[in-house]
Amino acid sequence: MEINKQPIYPVEPWTVTETEFKMETNYRNETTFSLSNGYLGTRGTLEEGYDFTVDEGLEGNFINGFYESEPIRYGEWNYGFPTESQSLLNLPDLKTIRLFLDGEELDIRKGEVSGWRRTLHMDQGTVTRSFDWTSPAGRTVHVETVRLVSFGVKNLLAMSYEVTPVNFDGEITFLSVLDANVENHTRKTNPLVDYGPFGRCLLTDRITADESMLFYQGTTEHSGLTMACGSVTTVKSPLTQEWSVTEDGLHCRHKIAVHGTKGQTITAEKQIAYTSSLDLEKNAMRDFILSILKEAVKKGFKSEAASQEACMKAMWNQADVVIEGDDALLQGMRFNLFHILQSASRDGKNGMGAKGLSGEGYEGHYFWDTEMYVMPALIYTNADLAKSLLGYRYRTLDEARDRARVLGHEKGALYPWRTINGQEASTYFPLGTAQYHINADIAYAFRLYLNVTGDMEFLKDQAAEVLVETARVWADVGCFAESRGGKYCICAVTGPDEYNAIVDNNF
Asked: Is 143 exposed, middle or buried (0-12, 13-18, 19+ CB in 10 A)?
């Protein structure tokens, strides 16, 4: 049977382009146009910060490894069941820049939109957008935006927002917003029953708005992790500027008014930074955020974009695959490689979520899929990234040892199926801890890395310990069965085929 599927986006070798905004495809496109650098990720939501419903879109900003936990509620608990959930937490949003034309707010749901193009530039590591908008009162502007999540500075997200009045002179107002009234879409999107977090989970420690920056710092209710974020917005020749914190204590704003002249472009640059207690002490966060932003403002967006492109060029020099005669397959291959390259943690502290940092899917958990499907691609194209991800498994070896003891193994380590912090987060044992093959998957990735790189220092410092500890569980979990001709048998485990759980010799 011949299947003739039409491409969702135009076939282009280095770009993915949306040529028309449609609400029914917005949720998907937010994921397509998401950006990250392995530490910081943001969904491809629109700069104007529309209040879309949970069915229409998801504003999402994430720090890899930053999670909230909730007590797991069981109908009937049994020994060894995990007690705390782990979910990648949706963090305060700072991307929003609301635009006003003589008091009329730009809203693509009203007025008239033409010339819409939103493009992921895989060779540059940026997302651009351009369109013309005519307000209900007849004012027309041309808008161009550029966004990046920096590969050079892991804490930095940078934006450029250009506005050109087409048929009028008048006041142009930029309203830069920090929105801390965010929560995960868990109730709507999580298929796991009663698996948190629920509602807004960050307790505000500090929120301020002044000439230095918009700033927020908050601590999770249960996991006890603290994060901080801030932004600085700059526009040349402002008429007036105002900074304010709203009465609800969950929003702060920087309002900048300038005079707009027909045909002359006005550019707003917004520098944004995030950090967390996974890297810093709480009392050092504000000064750190401010230092990142000051340096970014000094450097300027164009310079940051040039640095980003240089980083991407270096990555593609190692990773690019050229397919002749099939441009659609070439685009698809580069798109997949791009998301792998931007999703992989680079600090050795964290893993790679099943959906990278593009959203809340799978609660941001790390799975064995990283070792079996992602790692081979990275080992042959970017061994340093592969080494960082393997470093996460070494860092969480003690948690794997603890899990092995819970399951009755006096020696060795047993890695979890779902996790962020190294502890098992799956509420369903047959699909969770019963997957002993995860030990083999992780050992396979370590071995492949060593075979390809010959990194003997890594073998000595980290890999050997992981390989020995996982092997000890294999020696303990099975037995030599006379009924199977003396073969070594492993019973009551779940293999990679998760739809056939708790079977014999499926490892």
From this structure: buried
Radius of gyration of the chain from its Cα atoms, rounded to whole angstroms: 25
Q: 286 and 424, same structural domain?
A: no
With respect to residue 448, please indicate whether it lies within any of the assigned structural domains. Answer: yes
Cα 290 from Cα 288, distance rounded (Å): 5
Q: How confident is the model at residue 507 (pLDDT cuts 50, 70, 90)?
A: low
Containing structural domain, residue 38: 15-299
Active site residues: 498
DSSP secondary structure string, 172-234?
Answer: EEEEEEEE------HHHH--STT-S--S--EEEEEEEESSS-EEEEEEESSS--EEEEEEEEE
Say yes or no: 375 and 274 in one domain. no
Compute the distance between CA of residue 274 and CA of residue 4 in angstroms, rounded to an integer. Answer: 44
For residues 144 and 118, give the distance between their C-alpha atoms in angstroms, rounded to a whole number: 10
Q: Which long-range contacts (CB under 8 A, 24 or more apart) does 332-341 make?
A: 334/13, 334/14, 334/122, 335/16, 335/120, 335/122, 337/377, 337/381, 338/120, 338/122, 340/374, 340/377, 340/378, 341/315, 341/382, 341/385
Residues 275 and 395 in one domain: no
Model pTM score: 0.95
- Start-to-end Cα distance in the chain: 35
Q: At which of 251, 278, 299 does a domain end?
A: 299
pLDDT at position 427, please? 86
Are both 375 and 284 inside the same structural domain? no
CATH number, position 24: 2.70.98.40
Q: Per the structure, how many domains does the chain have?
A: 2
Q: Which of 177, 143, 304, 160 shows the shortest CA–CA distance to 234?
A: 160
User: What are 195-251's pLDDT values in tens digits?
Assistant: 777 788 999 999 999 999 999 999 999 999 999 999 999 999 999 999 999 999 999
DSSP SS3 for 97: strand
Q: Answer whether residue 184 is part of any domain.
A: yes
Indicate whether 214 belongs to any domain. Answer: yes
Residue at 46 is within a domain = yes
Whether residues 295 and 377 share a domain: the answer is no
3-state secondary structure at position 410:
coil
